[in-house]
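INFO  loader      accepted 1 record
INFO  loader      residues=532
INFO  predictor   begin
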Amino acid sequence: MTYEQRLCRIIVSPYNIGQNRKNEQLPIHSTGTEGEKDMQDFIRIHEDDNVAVALRPIAPGENLTVGQYQVTVGEEIPQGHKFALKPIAKGEEVIKYGFRIGYAKEDVAAGGWVHVHNLKTALGDLLEYQYEPVASGLKESAHAYFDGYRRADGRVGVRNEIWIIPTVGCVNSIAQALEKKAKKFVGGNVEDVIAFTHPYGCSQMGDDQENTRKVLADMIHHPNAGGVLVLGLGCENSNIPLLKEQYIGEYDDQRVKFLQCQDVEDEQEEAMKLLEELAVYAGAFSRETVDASELVIGMKCGGSDGLSGITANPTVGAFSDLLISKGGTTILTEVPEMFGAETLLMNRCETPELFDKTVHLINDFKNYFTSHNQTIYENPSPGNKKGGISTLEDKSLGCTQKSGSAPVKGVLAYAEPVKVKGLNLLSAPGNDLVAATALAVSGAQIVLFTTGRGTPFASPVPTVKISSNSKLAGHKNNWIDFNAGSMVEDKSKDQLAQELFDYVLAVASGKKVKAEEAGFHDMAIFKQGVTL
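INFO  predictor   done
INFO  writer      dumping tokens
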């Protein structure tokens, strides 16, 4: 039996930071005196690991005791990077999170730095998977509440904004001009006016054109928008009559207005009349107490470092479990960053049918890569590597920590709205803007974005930036909303998860995140094919 086949059969739940297989506390180690322990030194994540992770820079010559191992560090180990706990021979598996993250390219001495210079991926082509279901011990917990906007169709938004949605990139400049003019309508219960520009809607074929139309329709129905102006040109492929007939379906004609620019003499004058009507309609909504079971939260990471899978991502995973225990919904995406850890998700699928859909989710993305003559493991990024992530397996095993321990209840195609409460998997790439947009399009009212490097981007919905380390949180305070780096200093995962849950309730009740305060709003549609 190959390692890939053996990995597909193994039944292992995602690790919990600070716990081993027996659910006993696994210490984060410090070599300082009692008064110097506000910054810990290293962590061995799983009892089977032959590497540990530095939680602060470790100097050459430092002597460390890691469980049964006595290690003298041979060279400087940057924060978030790995060092060997025992000699690792060339060709031997390097184990982290209890799983193989690659093979040693050369002999590595105990205490040696383990990174891209001496570690290579073990990922290859498509695999065959066997369903070995793992039961979840997640239980219901007490109700929680936030103040949201109940829409006429029963759905709940966490913002009451007016959205201008172009059907085609040709009218982007008009949409942006209208956004500026319509800011005068902001006030009272109208929280903002936002134009979501994009370059698509014409000169597209096949799946690309279909995806654009689905995304536009989903955005029109998103509950964070109290009013929507759909702005068309008139000659585009994704024109307003086609969208109405085949994609949008039923809509509230007080909430959604349409304008085709080629049909009127002065499109800005006519658009402002419609926007004023939308402002009156949206202004009639007010926040009301809503059960947290109505929340749909997207989960994404980017600019990850070696601490992302130890602090920020497990915190989000624990948050996900907490929200789901209260009847809420979370969505996990960025499929290419599941490669190498996919069986942890597959075996948590509630039914064989969901398992089969998850297999297709993974293999369809692998086929997408190979159809473009690209390798499936062309990841991590330069920033990931600088932060301590060495291979895609290393990245994926950390990335999937965001899923927590809940069973998989749904598997969504790109631009497919979420229908089932609980944990859902969504088909979308790893690209930050494209994936975050995909989460919003599928119904997320808020996106949680973990990062070890930092990024200012936004998405169509409030995007909470969660740092994996305290240095980033201090250095880029204008970007970071929540610091999970304190897990290696003075807080537990459960404590941070509860704090994050409380913060999300505050955001859902109107608190602006840093990107919103800066006025940032982005939308990026997934492009796969040719442009005419």
